[in-house]
Amino acid sequence: MKKCVAIVLPLAIILGSVMHGGGTAKAAEKKEELAGKTYELSEDDNYVIESSNNEVGAATRFYLFGEIASTSTKNGFISYAIKSGNLKVMVDSSYASNFLSDENAREWHIISAKSKTVDATELSDNINSGAIIVQISKDGKTWINATIETDFYSNLNNINSKEVNGEKQDTFYETTNVQLTNGCYYRIIVAYELEREIDPSKILFWDKTNTEKKECLEIYQFYAYDSSVSQTESLNTKNAYEFGTVYRVDDQDGFENPILIKSDDPHNDWFVGKFYVSGYTDYRMDGDVPVFLKVPGDRAALWFNLEQELDKCNGRTDVKVIDISSGSDIYFGTPTIDNFGRGTLIVRKTNKHNQKEREIYTNYLEASAIVGANTRVDLFEEGDYEVALDYQLHYDKPFVFGTTTTKTFTYRIFFRFKVRNGDISAFLRDVDTNQFITNANIAEHGFYIDVANSQYLNISIKRDVLSDSADGIVSDNKFTGVATDGRKYTDEGIYTVNIENPATGDKTQKTVYVGNTDIMKVHMTTGLTIAEINEKLATGSYIDVEGQIIDPEPVVGKEEVELAEEKIVTEEPIVEESKDSSKSELNEASNQSSSTNIKPTKTGNSEKRLSKDDSNAINYLAVISVLVVICIALVGVVLKKSSVKAAKKEEDEKQ
Questions:
Q1: Which domains are present in the chain?
Q2: CA 251 and chain centroid, separation
Q3: Fewer CB in a 10 Å sphere around the end CB: N or C, the chain?
Q4: DSSP 218-249
Q5: Beta 549-550 vs 542-543: how paired, if at all?
Q6: Tens of pLDDT, residues 107-144
Q7: How far is residue 550's CA from residue 540's CA, in Å, rounded to a whole number?
Q8: CA–CA dist 129, 112 (Å, integer)
Q9: Do the beta carbons of residue 28 and residue 21 sit within 8 Å?
């Protein structure tokens, strides 16, 4: 078959359907059908991927499922931004139904291929009805095998639900946290062989059946990353906590009985790599285990820095990290793990309820780590963590007469740490509105406690109620104890919630009133005791809708006026003596007015001290009174002068 140049093209998105998740902020899960390319090879091409492969059309055999936030391109690959979780790769089992049928022998159909090699990858069994190889890459150029499946067309019913390393999986392949945290390229290779009958050959009286065969390859490629993780974020080792102690263990079957390495060990005085924890504000020590404290805005992360070339450790060509075909880790209780590879990383988390979950990253040093680079392993929330990196070294030890002896040693880096929130982030929410309740506030129908992500807080609660006495509130001892996240508290009373962060020793207290009794509302909003509130209510005060107590407005009456008059202090106005009779009359009128309208205050020990406001009022009234008297006197003087002039004029006329 003639070959033509064809470059493997990136994947394209064919189909997307959204599955919504109940009105939360969680990103919608999407189903994305992958589109790859199909290539035909001649029968003896041995399934080798080359630029000369003959591209014959599209292939749509797989789809992705996950919280895909957006799509773009990266270095020619379709790129998926994952909001959270991992991306699942599923096989469309309905696609191959026609290929599996050989009812019409003259149509192309799948046959059992005997080859055990696909593009230089050695399989553990024949291709048979088809082989699938999932590969990953850090740069899109150098590919590492992640998983391999043979005879998959005959096992389509089981391929999407199978047991891997002793654990049930519901997908053919699923990405890992390490891959998405740092961003990863993926390639899926499908290899199978097709056959069909062609015109028979006539040999005398016998028709010889003739067939033709062709090898087929399907290639799917994409890139995926965690969109919540900054791909440009780097590690500053000066501000990070370092782990790197190396232990020698018995062998790769269990990695048991760790001991510190000795001076004559080929691993002495150098490290394959070191781990670091960053993104915390502070830490405490719980025995020999560090407890990293996070506050809002922190992102606690585990990093690994690969310091050695795997084939030339410590600069020596005779010391290298070798591949482990299979192994198990007794401490973590793993079954025998196939393709243990060049170092397997195991991370186990234990939550507050002692529930454990683990992540196993096989062939970690080769597939995920980059020499000289800080590779992020994962981001961590609250919990207790245990980490182990299990690997093996091949060592050529010089022997006598110029010969060497090959040695194999097994090693382990193991450490523990804890992550806790460093603040006290427990909230009280109204059962009706789910809104936050501030301290010393009111929730008429009840509240519940929301600890958010702070799972390790110590919380206790006490309910106080209004007693029959007039002295205030007393504790109801029937309801004092620990509190539970999410439980609703609806009985009437004043609740005191005490919160303690055992990791820091910090404590806080929140108070909320449940009910609609006015007196209790005032007690919560003002801080007044019950006795003080009752006293105010007895003197005419009232309670408004906001739970505030309002004092009555003062009423101005006859008694208040007389009291103000008693407080008025004035001095007799001083008027210069004048020979003019009008001035004398003015003085007399002024004195008469003062003695009539203004009463002097009492003197001696019984004299009342006036306030500043009273003094100002008295002075103002005194000035007004004097001005009125002066005006009256002036009018009288004017009238008197007018009458005198009139009398004089009349007398002159008579003369």
A1: 12-226 (no CATH), 237-421 (no CATH), 427-516 (2.60.40), 559-654 (no CATH)
A2: 40
A3: C
A4: EEEEEEEEETTS-TT----GGGSEEE--EEEE
A5: antiparallel
A6: 888 888 988 999 888 898 999 988 999 999 999 999 99
A7: 9
A8: 5
A9: yes
